[in-house]
Design goal:
It is built from nine helices and six strands, in the order E-E-H-E-H-E-H-H-H-H-E-H-E-H-H. Helix 1 crosses helix 2. It has one domain (3-226): 3-Layer(aba) Sandwich (Rossmann fold), CATH 3.40.50. 41% of the residues lie in helices and 13% in strands.
Amino acid sequence: MSQWMFIHGAASNHHTWARQRRLGWDVWMGDLPTLNHSSPRYLIDRLADWCLSQLTEPTVIVGHSMGGAVAQIMALKNPTNVLALVLVGTGPHLPVNSQLLDLLANDPTAALEKIARWSISKKSDPKLLEISIDMAKAVSKDRALQEFTACQFFDARPQLHQIFCPVYLVRATDDKMTPTALSDEFLTVWPNMPVFDIVDAGHLMMLEQPEKFNEILDSIRLAIKEKGM
């Protein structure tokens, strides 16, 4: 069975994937490093280098939000070791509202709570909102600003045609952070890519609808296996 690497998003950590540990596969679900001295403009590129350095064999990369940006850069940098991409709640570019960046700089506590609220569907268990807020507050304020600013700089659209590995898209209908209109842009390059929509879930769909999410991952695993990978 192929190794899988799960990469979390901005202002988050490996607890994003808490409900995927039950999958029982050979997975890596660590935290991205803090690169304090990296300019936001180059941060995603540096994180991609770090993630590639952790690989010991060709690997399926599952990237959520900013982690999806890291995954795309990994596939561009080292197609030999990136077996397939599973892009979760992400896009080929990740625009960030300038008012949110200002709030992160001036009132990070309020900004992180707002991000946490936007990350959970109103149809989900209210307890998940508390979990989302706790996850956001566990990240340093400087790191949160650095990572969301890095998302603002990210744009892989000119290079997507250079990614040739299988790519799968998983998204949620109530995602306010990366709405489906954003992920639809992948289809302009990969019109036949498999797309899995999770209903009644938001940006943290893997926590909100873990059974459905894990079922999708299992179907992707089988599809990759059928390709002989």
